[in-house]
Amino acid sequence: xxxxxxxxxxxxxxxxxxxxxxxxxxxxxxxxxxxxxxxxxxxxxxxxxxxxxxxxxxxxxxxxxxxxxxxxxxxxxxxxxxxxxxxxxxxxxxxxxxxxxxxxxxxxxxxxxxxxxxxxxxxxxxxxxxxxxxxxxxxxxxxxxxxxxxxxxxxxxxxxxxxxxxxxxxxxxxxxxxxxx
Length: 181
Fold this sequence. Notes:
Helix 6 (129-145) links the parallel strand 4 and strand 5. The chain starts with a strand and ends in a 9-residue tail after the last helix. The protein has a single domain, classed as P-loop containing nucleotide triphosphate hydrolases (Rossmann fold), CATH 3.40.50. By secondary structure, it is of the alpha/beta class. Helices cover 50% and strands 12% of the residues. Strands 2-3-1-4-5 form a five-stranded parallel β-sheet, sandwiched between helices. Helix 1 (14-25) packs across helix 7 (157-172) and helix 3 (50-66) packs antiparallel against helix 4 (78-89).
């Protein structure tokens, strides 16, 4: 099983690219739990919600890992939960980073905010490119510091798609040829 994570700032194409990757290569796609949480709660999150959101994301990831698909596609993971907690509330429960570091991920696709427009969806809150760039930089810094495998994906929508599909094809190696689309 190969585990792929899409990460980076909001409105950079993570959910769209996750679906494109699944369409091309198959596999199991795990969505972003916080979106489900906000829809269910009908309100913005606060710091007290961070543990429940992280536990929900972990539960979804663990259920998908148990299915042992050839490709597990994570639309996000605890890195985003951790960085958002720090961005919005100035803190994050320490166990979240510990859980993140205890798990194996084969490749992160780190999506740049540059080259695509921010799109409001009722849950996003960083319309300024500088805010999204700071989130990208924090993501990259964490990935570098913890020696996580990643590739930066940028450009317009089509360029992002091509870069992501190429990276996943390389990740899967010969097994990519066996997946019917």
